[in-house]
Protein: Flavohemoprotein
Organism: Alicyclobacillus ferrooxydans
Amino acid sequence: MEEIARKLKPIDAKKLDIINATLPVVAEHAEAITTHFYQRMFANHPELKNIFNQTHQITGRQPRALAAAVYAAAAHLEDMTTILPALERIAQKHRSLQIKPDQYPIVGENLLGAIQEVLGNAATDEIIDAWAEAYGVIADALIRMEETLYRDTELQPAGWNGFRNFVVDRKVKESDVITSFYLKPEDQGSIPDFLPGQYITVKLDVEGQPYTHLRQYSLSDRPGTGYYRISVKREDAPNSDIPAGIVSSYLHSQLEEGDVLPITAPAGDFYLDMAADTPVALISGGVGLTPLISMLNTLVAEQSKREVSFVHAALSGNVHAFKNHVQEIAKQAVNVRSFVIYEKPSAQDIQEQAFVKDGFITLEWIKENLPKDADFYFCGPTPFMKAVNKALKQWGIPAEKVHYEFFGSFGDIESEN
């Protein structure tokens, strides 16, 4: 990936000066630009609604993510290697969603149009021309990265590109809100291994819905089992403005054992480094435990001698998935410790002494219970991610020891709000 970034055609110096000079005004209007971009693009190309999560459009999550990505890439045009992790994360998601090169010109045309329409007379032809070249450099980088990912995915043992039909072999309720789906290939062929922490994309055509729905779910068991497992939280409507999760509701209430689910091959840049021998801290909040369960199960199956601290934060025991599974591992494996934090423990949780702390995870608790020389992996809701990330920074944990999966704008996790 680094070699690809180095081989990119450098942007014209004069145009680079224009980009740098206009970055502040574009950043100021970034969310308005990207919101308008999606409206414009969907009006011109409604077929792309089959790819983009429409709930994220309503909540504004997708426009914010795109705004952060475009701004970060434009700010590093002189040396794209500095933002390789962010670009690779985007490329992995694009490969999983089956984004193809011929879609980039559509995005570019509508993004530039949105910039021009939002900024009005301030967006001169010279400025739009410079931003067009900047977009071309960014698109070229992603297309090349994704080309490599498509090739490697198809050439790996049992690998495939596109969507492959899998059958729901088992459906298991893990908590009041989380259900697991065990998936086996309909063609009964082999399936490729994956790196613990990676995800798949599922495709659904829901009756009464005009567009296809694509969703990415972390694999929640170790590789080498002969199946893929996803563990999905049912997303209920938080208020009247935001609908309930269409896909999660369908999976919970309508998808049954024996049904077929098309998926793409595993992807993702968030995964456990199996070559390391340092202690490992796996810190999860809510359904964010799914990729970390995959990591835990892999470490146990590989009989790793690494010191493992598995920390899970949930609202209460009612919504705590895999509780007994992790407890059993901690009892049997001397190198594994389990910590449970409940925000609002129930009377039963208190009676059973099922948690070590109530409330929220804090820096003080982390310092008292986790080894500072560990590799830290964490995943969960945005406020949880911000809290853990901030705590690890304050503790002085080096950036190379901090790993996280975050389905949203990368800037959000660093912000204080």
Notes: The two ends are 33 Å apart (CA to CA). The chain has 14 helices and twelve strands. The domain at 280-413 is CATH 3.40.50.80 (Rossmann fold). The first helix runs from residue 2 to 6.
